[in-house]
Structures are given as C-alpha cells and as structure tokens.
C-alpha cells in the first residue's frame, strides 16, 4: 500500500548550518489567496506530531467558515518515521539548560543520543534558516509570525520570548515545562518585563495548561507554575500592541490539551483583536 501524503503541503528537508543537524519542514498552503502584505505564519514546533491538526484547523476555519485569516502553517520537525523517533532530538532543541542526572534518568523512553541545552541554536535556526525557506515558497508577512510549542516546546517559547521578544509577533506557550532545571527559565522574566515598554513591536503571549496536568503532590507543579506566571503577566501594564491571554483547559491532560487549545490559539495568533 502506498503511503499517503498530506494534501497541498510541501515537505522540505535541510541540514542546519548552525548545528549540523537535519530538520524537516512541512508547509501547508492556505486554501485562499494571500493579502497584499502576505500570509501570516504559524510555526508549529514538534511538527511531526502536531502539523496536520494545526493545518487542518487553520485552513478549514479560514476557507469554510471565514473565522480567521488564511495563514501558512509550518510544522518544524525531523526526518523521522514517526513522532516517537523525534523525541530524542527535541530534548536538544527545546531545552535551554542541561538537567541534573536524576532528571536525565527519566528520559530513557526517548530513542537515540540524548543531548540538551540547544535552545539558543534552535531559535537561530528558526529565525535564520526556517523563516527564509518558508518565504521562498509562499508570500508571507514578516510582521505576523507566531510560534507554538507544547510541553518542552512551551518552555522553549517562554525562554525565547524572554531573550528575543521581537523575533515573533505572537508566542503560544501550551503546558510549558517551567519546572525544567529548577525553573531556570524564569530568570529571564524580569529582564523581559523591564524591556517590554521600549519594544518597537510588542509581542502577544498566550499561556495555557490542562486542568488535569498536576496530580496531587506532583513536583512539576504544571498548573500552578502556569497560573502563577499568568497572574504576573496579567498585571503588567504593557505598551500599545502588547496582549496577554491565559487559560486553564478544565478536564484536559498534558497530552490531550493540545486539541481543545488549537482554536483558541489560532484565534489569538491570527485575529487582530
């Protein structure tokens, strides 16, 4: 039986000049024509797992319901047979620091060589290598580019926002692993909030988490960490253009939260208000 291919999508593999590693892009063509400024773009991390779902939602809601603008969805992943084959690679790209030995012992489920602390390189790959490749095949609007990450991807989104807040116009952090390396990501929060009023292009930020992500006694504090961070951001008085939204998706687990979150995330990223 012949393998199926995703309709109206381009697949492009490349080896990064930054870290010498291979990546796979899946680029979904919108069903409608671009505006004069080009299509907005949503970059989906862990694209091996989430690309198809995001692309379907974005294209059908724009074409059939005219609920959101036509947008390009880009899945950023790896040349692996399936999502499980990409698990080891994501630890390198999505983490900002090296974990301790006890945490590393929890990652035996991932195949292949496990490395960490490659988030800075991965952000450079997204902005310097992935972005030009997408712009080379479809007309896109560089002022309207969002990035989505879940779990470690949500951690990466927060870490990168704090370091380079103008790299993307919208930052979508779902179930962020704030607990990583003793919550080291939060060391960048104060610098971001101090710099926010002077930003020429203030970003938008969405933080979400599933209501069932924190079993009693869980040291990761998935829900508490997300809610506490959201409370601080909600209290910020940012410049014009700054927008923040958060949501606890009641009844949803760490894995299951992605699907009910997709439409609110797309609305936040693609609608102007």
UniProtKB/TrEMBL annotation:
Coiled coil residues, start to end: none
Decide whether keyword NAD is in the record: no
Hydrolase is among the record's keywords = yes
| Pfam families the record matches | Esterase (PF00756)
Keywords, in A-Z order = Hydrolase
* Spans traversing the lipid bilayer: none
Q: Name one GO molecular function term.
A: hydrolase activity, acting on ester bonds
Task: Name it.
Answer: Esterase
Q: Which organism is it from?
A: Phenylobacterium parvum
